[in-house]
Specification:
Shape: elongated
CATH superfamily of the largest domain: Endonuclease Chain A
CATH topology of the largest domain: Endonuclease, Chain A
Largest sheet: 7 strands, mixed
Radius of gyration: 37 Å
Order of helices and strands: HHHHEHEHHEHEHEEEH
Number of helices: 10
Helix content: 40-55%
Structural class: alpha/beta
Distance between the termini: 84 Å
Number of strands: 7
Length: 296
């Protein structure tokens, strides 16, 4: 097409029989040059696309290699097994199973991402976290339980599994387990008698303290249920205004866990181990000259 246009222009500008062959050659030459330029431009564009694709492939390979190296560090954990079975489950069964599997993977990934910040939170009370942490403990479990939140909990099936896991931790790994029950009035001690007896029989060190018997500065701050595992990680239960468990937080930030440890130790020492015939504590030892409890 370009050669035809050049030929027609050459004829229009200087039509002559003498230059007719040269006009034809010039037209062919110009058309060839244009075709070469178009080919080179197309080739450059294709090479650019190939370069981008290759760079992307290398970047993907780099990410895959890095991910593989990270997974290699967890070879003894469940990460390789998770990856293997996740790829299988999304290729079998109904669509609802695929959607559920993807949702669970996303949930787990989000939870792992939260753990990189040393803290994670979930709605309601997470018994799975509680059981897993109990199984992972190697030194100690210190727990504060309030009757406002724990009312009726110790007669439930999750509580039974939790206590069994603690008993196994005590027997098999010699874990020290301490539980401090906090009630409002000394009159409530009697109701906790059977609970305390059962847990003591399991090897758990149990004490009970009444808020009314505590000095005012002991009562300052939030009275929440929490468990500190190995003196390094806290499991905290938060209740709403209706005393319903609204959320659970797992926290490994030292500056937030240490105040809970100090609060537990202070209240634990305030409870007199010499209690009623059932072992339920009824006397508070107010510390004099001690530090003021943390307000967390």
């Amino acid at each position: 097409m370009t050669g035809v246009v050049v030929y027609l222009l050459a004829n229009a500008i200087g039509p002559s029989a003498e230059y007719g062959p040269w006009q034809l050659v010039l037209s062919v030459l110009c058309g060839g040059i244009v075709l070469i330029v178009q080919f080179l431009a197309s080739f450059v564009n294709q090479m650019h696309a190939v370069t981008v694709s290759v760079d992307k492939r290398f970047a993907d390979i780099g990410r895959a290699t890095k991910l593989f190296d990270e997974v290699e560090k967890l070879r003894g954990d469940g990460v390789p097994r998770l990856a293997e079975h996740a790829t299988k489950v999304v290729s079998m069964g109904p669509d609802i199973l695929h959607a559920f599997a993807h949702a669970e993977i996303d949930r787990l990934a989000a939870q792992m991402e939260d753990f990189t910040n040393l803290s994670a939170e979930c709605p309601g009370e997470n018994h799975d976290w509680l059981m897993t942490l109990t199984g992972c403990t190697r030194e100690s479990i210190d727990a504060i339980s309030t009757t406002v939140v724990d009312d009726g909990f110790w007669s439930t099936e999750p509580a039974g599994r939790y206590l069994t896991a603690q008993r196994e931790a005590i027997i098999e790994r010699q874990i020290r387990v301490r539980r401090l029950f906090i009630v409002k009035r000394p009159e409530e001690f009697g109701a906790l008698g059977p609970i305390c007896t059962e847990q003591r029989d399991m090897g758990i060190d149990v004490r009970v303290v009444a808020l009314e018997e505590l000095p005012p500065y002991f009562r300052r701050g939030k009275m929440i249920d929490f468990v500190v595992f190995d003196g390094a990680l806290s499991y905290e239960i938060h209740a709403d205004q209706l005393s319903v468990n609204s959320s659970t937080t797992v926290n490994a930030r030292a500056n937030e866990v240490e105040p809970l440890i100090r609060r537990f130790d202070l209240l634990w020492d305030a409870a007199n181990p010499a209690g009623s015939p059932h072992g339920v504590l009824g006397t508070v030892q107010a510390q004099t000259g001690g530090s003021v409890p943390d307000g967390s």
